[in-house]
Design a protein that fits this description.
Order of helices and strands: H
Oligomer: single chain
Number of helices: 1
Distance between the termini: 71 Å
Number of strands: 0
Radius of gyration: 26 Å
Largest sheet: none
Low-confidence stretches: none
Length: about 70
């Protein structure tokens, strides 16, 4: 059996650097997605204020696309 020298300082740095990368990636994702979700939810709330039976409004629960066959 061969004894492999272990660098304890390097073992500590690797998980810390991974956690830093994970945190930075998560924060960047949230910073990017949060305004998009606010906008989409705002659009949803805007259209929810109108009745679905209003002329010109589609009811997406019963919407079936027409295919040219």
């Amino acid at each position: 059996m061969v004894a492999v020298p272990v660098d304890h300082n390097n073992q500590i740095k690797e998980p810390v650097s991974y956690l830093e990368f994970y945190k930075e990636s998560k924060d960047a994702f949230i910073k990017t997605v949060k305004p998009l979700m606010k906008r989409l939810l705002g659009i949803l709330r805007y259209f929810e204020q109108y009745p679905q039976k209003l002329k010109g409004m589609l009811n997406f629960q019963r919407f079936e696309p027409i295919y040219n066959t």
